Structure formats: structure tokens, C-alpha cells
Amino acid sequence: MIFFVLLGIFGGLCALGYSAMKFKNRGSTKLSVYLIHTRVAAQGAVVTAMTIGAIYQMLDEFVWNKKK
After folding, report:
1. What is the mean pLDDT of residues 13-31?
2. Are 8 and 64 in contact (CB under 8 A)?
3. What is the structure's pLDDT at 61?
4. Following DSSP, what letter does each residue of 1-68 receive, concatenated?
5. pLDDT for residue 4
6. Which of 16, 29, 32, 45 is the most buried (most CB within 10 A)?
7. Phi/psi class of residue 29: alpha, beta or left (left: φ > 0; alpha: ψ in -120 to 50)?
8. What is the pTM of this model?
């Protein structure tokens, strides 16, 4: 399960890094709106990784019955 934690951290950092690279080319978008979009992208990556991890754990425990 540590894989999904690392995947969430990596996804969040990638979203922040991408937004940092595109910061100068944001056009006429206000700074506050741009930062809110960056925060939503990073949180979305983390929540997606957590959701996939929870679904995998439920499938592993209840459907595939791999637990001893």
C-alpha cells in the first residue's frame, strides 16, 4: 500500500512542478485564480491515488481473498 502513498506524493509534486513551469505564461489570469487551480490539480492527483489505493485494497481483501 505504500506504493499508492508514493504515487500520490509524486502526482502532487508533478502537478505543482508543471504549474511552476507554466507560471510565467499564465496570460491574463489573476494570480489568486492560478494558485487555486494549481492547488486543485495537486489535491486531485493525491485524492485519485488514495481512491485507487482504497479500491485496490478492497478488491484484494474481499474479492480476490488473498489475505490469510
Report:
1. 91
2. no
3. 86
4. -HHHHHHHHHHHHHHHHHHHHTSTT-TT--HHHHHHHHHHHHHHHHHHHHHHHHHHHHIIIIIS----
5. 84
6. 45
7. beta
8. 0.76
